[in-house]
Design a protein that fits this description.
Elements (H helix, E strand, L loop, with lengths): L4 E4 L5 H12 L6 H8 L4 E8 L2 E11 L2 E9 L8 H15 L4 E7 L3 H9 L3 E6 L10 E5 L6 H16 L5
Helix pairs in contact: 3-5
């Protein structure tokens, strides 16, 4: 059973988000100014996952016409493999349904097999590569796209994943 809440990110969350950023990305992480700027960006939407009033994960998108571009998704290492990322993605998809956004897209490091597997579980497919995309080591990025989320087959996948999250044990 899910024991955390997905909420809209506020500027009060940024310091906790930066702690997760550092744990996940070391010195190559977003700055406080970057997050604060994103929170004021009219095309962006950021969510946090909170457990006992503490941020344990976050996700951001840019909404551009009928597309949502995932800008970031991270979960605190202590809370991985507990469906937190799944919940953040599902919440984002719900927002896309509400706003009639049909597709999601993102870039992910070619070496990040775990994240690639997560995105594939949500119906994302790799449709190209951005060469030397990541500045810290010139690693390539896969460009991944979802199917049309309004398609009947995709809605069935969404409902199946939603049910998995609702029935998952958070604390083991």
């Amino acid at each position: 059973m899910k024991q955390y809440a997905i909420q809209k990110m506020t500027h009060y969350d940024v310091d906790e988000i930066l702690q997760i950023e550092e744990l996940c990305y070391g010195v190559h992480h977003w700055s406080k100014e970057s997050f604060l700027s994103e929170l004021n960006n009219k095309i962006s939407s950021y969510r946090t996952a909170k457990y006992q009033n503490k941020c344990i994960g976050y996700m951001g998108i840019w909404k551009i016409i009928n597309e949502a571009h995932v800008t970031t998704l991270s979960v605190h290492p202590d809370f991985r493999n507990k469906k937190v990322a799944h919940s953040l993605i599902l919440d984002t998809i719900e927002e896309c349904y509400d706003e009639k956004i049909k597709f999601l897209t993102l870039e992910v490091r070619v070496s990040n097999k775990k994240a690639i597997g997560l995105y594939e579980k949500f119906g994302f497919k790799s449709l190209g590569v951005r060469k030397k995309y990541y500045q810290d080591n010139n690693e390539d990025a896969l460009i991944m796209w979802s199917e049309n989320i309004f398609d009947k087959k995709y809605k069935e996948l969404y409902n199946k994943l939603r049910e998995e999250v609702e029935n998952a044990d958070f604390i083991k």
